[in-house]
């Protein structure tokens, strides 16, 4: 027997939004986040099963092709040149180094290979090198992804012609909290780059970071921004702040793990067809919390021992967890 609860009626009201230009309001998403935990997870899992294999997780590997020395002031980032975090500047990797890393990732089960570079945005000479890398990784039979900062007109088109499947450019947080984290680029700059990516026919990978001292309302604001992109991103990474000594956000009060799970659930409900990626911060999460994230609708993880410059669970440890949970990789 199915028992209808007040939470069921609340969700039905939220999903019946008469304003078709805004699929989800901030207040609606905050109402989701405020739901009893069991009801929220139940609805997220139901939504997940309608659109995805409930026992499949996509494995992606992320490599830094150019590390450190970034001129931006993102308060969470150890690669910002102005912060003293112990991250050494490294020039762009060679094509051979990237292809070797991609081939090794494929052997370990990764189906998507992501390449990140620490700069405000690429110069044309950088794009020329990146297109070679994208084409070479694509030739291995892997999905390709890049995160290179702000794109100038025409650059996304070049990346797309080289075979780029996804471009990652996160909104990071809600507009009203953004200035507390970053001052060297505007929110609109990020939206403009996403528009360039869409215009080039490349899939959008766009999410944010939680645990930066924001309120639940700000987390709702982030999810609303993502869910109301037209269309919403095909891939949505939800990052948990990894606190690095020397960055302004080091020492921020830690986010309750169940609040992170709630954020995953809200992303799944509001962007039902997207791949919701359990991203940075997994090294600090228990297996139980990660399992709850999968139950809440996460179906993608970064796989390997490093995310750009911060740690990540090793591949063997990840595979052991997936085996415990009866999840298979895709």
What's the quick description here?
This protein is an alpha/beta fold and 330 residues long. The protein contains twelve helices and twelve strands. Strands 1, 2, 3, 4, 5, 6, 7, 8, 9 and 12 form a ten-stranded parallel β-sheet that branches.
Describe the structure.
The protein is α/β, with parallel strands linked by helices and 330 residues long. Helices cover 40% and strands 15% of the residues. The strands form 2 sheets. Strands 1, 2, 3, 4, 5, 6, 7, 8, 9 and 12 form a 10-stranded parallel sheet that branches. Strands 10-11 form a two-stranded antiparallel sheet. Residues 16-20 have low confidence and may be disordered.
**Tell me, what's the shape?**
globular
In percent, how much strand structure appears in the residues?
15-25%
Mean pLDDT, as a whole number?
A: 89
Helix content: 40-55%
Distance between the termini: 35 Å
Main pleated sheet: 10 strands, parallel
* Poorly predicted tracts of residues: 16-20
Number of helices: 12
C-alpha Rg (nearest Å): 19 Å
Q: Could you tell me the number of beta strands?
A: 12
Structural class: alpha/beta
Order of secondary-structure elements: HHHEHEHEHEHHEEHEHEHEEEHE
